[in-house]
């Protein structure tokens, strides 16, 4: 610190120099450092002599990128660039956003999570483990940045539709935060990916000598809750202006943690609230095609986990805004899980399913529930590949002139049906969206370009709004507004 003549303290920031600067991805510009910068920053001789423009660097990256043979190789190429030169990384992602999103995020990031220990090159973010109980604040202070505004944290138990990936789940916070910068302009220096490693139930990883996480079964119960509580309290102490985004926690923890902390700190769960908002936006957009109102819909969900119930809750809220009663709105939303239709007479229902358990006869499977309820929209959040088979799609098409079919499970290998299947089996009638992108397809001589109902259209904007306004809490009304805005742009 230095003092002026008026005794005002001025912060003096000293940039790293020389080789240290070239190893700082936030500041490194590689061959784009100018002659003057090379002289001032001790870089002469450490770089090839020609000064390249950012566009020339971009051309080199894309030339190498296009020579890669698989999407996983392209992912490795891009994250390696991110570890060297974030300015150039975000130039690439920003200029080629449609091409890059499926690589740095779903579906390719799922492959990266599955092979995390084998692909590991350089750590990114913070790894907080169950062994760090009692020293969370100290651990967070090891992070070099002090102005953290957005944290994405996972415990790796329910990564996309791939299940327990343990410490490999770190790929999700890293990918999500890349989209915060690419899509919403959040300064990457103010973001922090966190892996909360409490163990894994994945036998393959426990036996893998290259696995990077704790070699133990998952911590559960009071010990788990205490660990999360200490982490959240430490974030409030060390990074008091940070938004905490819960990501890919299993159902048994996701709802409970959201309800426990949403009124106390600035937090949201993207799988519950972000998925809900993008799906509601998709419904609003679909209803412009069908000419119907939201409150007149009958919606059947296949999958009754955090994504499905989160969508149901937001749809209910939107229907009430349109004039429906709470009971009428809930009665419009039905769920099928692994045991059939969710009805009140079923014993042992999980707490989060009870508000959508109706007084009605049961149904053993999706098709029988569909035939009885005759829904206008079918939403898949089950992670069961091809659950929407030909019979299901044809039944939806027989019941509706323009059936709404959303197969939202990620990655594409877990999608309830493909775009080609939905359009083909419905003879082009379906209004279709998937969680991860499918290529255009030709059915009956017509080319169909499907929609993508992915959280990435929601969470970066909501996060930017929270950061810009310094909100103390994240509300459901924010996600409802985001859904309406997104629909207006489609």
Q: Would you mind describing this structure in some detail?
A:
This protein has 490 residues and is an alpha/beta fold. Among the domains are: 105-249, Rossmann fold, CATH 3.40.50; 273-457, 3-Layer(aba) Sandwich (Rossmann fold), CATH 3.40.50. 43% of the residues lie in helices and 12% in strands. The protein is built from 21 helices and 16 strands. It has helices at 18-22, 35-40, 54-66, 71-84, 86-95, 97-104, 108-114, 116-119, 136-140, 171-184, 203-206, 221-238, 251-261, 270-290, 306-321, 326-331, 366-373, 390-399, 419-425, 459-469, 476-488; strands at 2-3, 9-10, 126-129, 150-154, 191-197, 243-246, 267-269, 299-302, 333-337, 340-341, 377-380, 404-407, 431-434, 441-443, 446-448, 451-452. The strands form 4 sheets. Strands 10-9-8-11-12-13-16 form a 7-stranded mixed beta sheet, sandwiched between helices. Strand 14 (441-443) and strand 15 (446-448) form a beta hairpin. Helix 4 (71-84) crosses helix 7 and helix 14 (270-290) packs parallel to helix 21. The radius of gyration is 24 Å and the shape is globular. It starts with a strand and ends with a helix.
């Amino acid at each position: 610190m230095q003092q002026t003549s008026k005794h005002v303290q001025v912060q003096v920031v000293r940039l790293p120099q020389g080789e240290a600067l070239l190893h700082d991805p936030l500041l490194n510009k590689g061959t784009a450092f100018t002659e003057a910068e090379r002289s001032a920053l001790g870089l002469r001789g450490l770089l090839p002599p020609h000064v390249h423009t950012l566009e020339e660097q971009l051309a080199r990256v894309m030339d190498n990128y296009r020579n890669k043979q698989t999407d996983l190789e392209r992912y490795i190429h891009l994250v390696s660039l991110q570890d060297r030169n974030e300015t150039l990384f975000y130039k690439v992602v920003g200029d080629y956003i449609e091409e890059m999103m499926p690589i740095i995020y779903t579906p390719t990031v799922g492959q990266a999570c599955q092979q995390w220990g084998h692909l590991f090159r350089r750590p990114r973010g913070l790894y907080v483990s169950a062994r760090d109980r009692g020293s969370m604040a100290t651990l967070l202070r090891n992070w070099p940045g002090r102005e953290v505004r957005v944290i994405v944290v996972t415990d790796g138990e329910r990564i996309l539709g791939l299940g327990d990936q343990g410490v490999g789940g770190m790929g999700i916070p890293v990918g999500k935060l890349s989209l915060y910068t690419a899509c919403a302009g959040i300064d990457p220096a103010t973001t922090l990916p966190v892996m909360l490693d409490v163990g894994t139930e994945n036998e393959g990883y426990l036996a893998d000598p290259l696995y990077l996480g704790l070699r133990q079964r998952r911590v559960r119960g009071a010990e788990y809750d205490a660990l999360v509580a200490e982490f959240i309290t430490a974030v409030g102490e060390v990074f008091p202006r940070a938004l905490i985004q819960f990501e890919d926690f299993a159902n048994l923890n996701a709802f409970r943690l959201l309800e426990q902390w949403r009124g106390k700190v600035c937090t949201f769960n993207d799988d519950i609230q972000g998925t809900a908002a993008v799906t509601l936006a998709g419904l609003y957009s679909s209803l412009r095609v069908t000419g119907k109102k939201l409150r007149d819909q009958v919606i059947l969900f296949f999958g009754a986990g955090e994504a499905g119930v989160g969508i149901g809750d937001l749809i209910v809220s939107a229907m009430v805004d349109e004039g429906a009663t709470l009971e009428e709105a809930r009665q419009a939303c039905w769920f099928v899980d692994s045991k059939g239709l969710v009805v009140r007479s079923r014993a042992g229902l999980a707490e989060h399913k009870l508000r959508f358990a109706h007084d009605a006869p049961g149904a053993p499977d999706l098709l029988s529930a569909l035939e009885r309820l005759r829904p206008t929209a079918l939403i898949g959040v089950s992670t069961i590949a091809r659950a929407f088979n030909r019979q299901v799609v044809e039944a939806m098409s027989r019941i509706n002139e323009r059936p709404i079919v959303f197969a939202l499970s990620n990655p594409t290998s877990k999608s309830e049906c493909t775009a080609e299947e939905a359009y083909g089996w419905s003879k082009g009638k379906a209004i279709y969206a998937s969680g991860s992108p499918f290529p255009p397809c030709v059915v009956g001589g017509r080319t169909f370009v499907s929609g993508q109902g992915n959280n990435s259209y929601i969470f970066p904007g909501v996060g930017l709004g929270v950061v810009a306004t310094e909100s103390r809490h994240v509300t459901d009304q924010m996600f409802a507004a985001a859904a309406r805005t997104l629909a207006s742009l489609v």
